[in-house]
Amino acid sequence: xVQLVESGGGLVxxxxxxxxxxxxxxxxxxxxxxxxxxxxxxxxxxxxxxxxRTGGSTNYAxxxxxxxxxxxxxxxxxxxxxxxxxxxxxxxxYYCRGRGFYDYWGRGTQVTVSS
Length: 115
What we know:
Helix content: under 10%
Number of helices: 0
Low-confidence stretches: none
Largest sheet: 7 strands, mixed
Radius of gyration: 13 Å
Strand content: over 45%
Shape: globular
Distance between the termini: 40 Å
C-alpha cells in the first residue's frame, strides 16, 4: 500500500522555523522526483519546492527561495522541507507529492504562522 505521510506542521510565530517530513512507503522512493506543495484557504494549490530523484537538483517558488530548503534521504525513504524565517503568508496545508511511473500525494500537514 502506497503511503506518503507528512508530519512536523504546527503553530509558529513569524520569524520562526519548522521542519516538515514526508515518510514514503509502498513504492521505490529513490525512483521518484519529489516535491512540496501548499494550499492556503481560498487559494489554489501551489508548488513550493521540488527535488530530483538523486537530490542533485532542486527548484523553489520565488516566494520561499532563500528561506526554505528541500532535501531527501533515499536510505530512509523520507522527504524534508526546512522552513526558516516563516511569514504569515506561509500559512497553509503542506503536501508532499511523488512523481514517477505514478503520481502520489500525501494528506497534508497544517502550518500556521502567527504574526
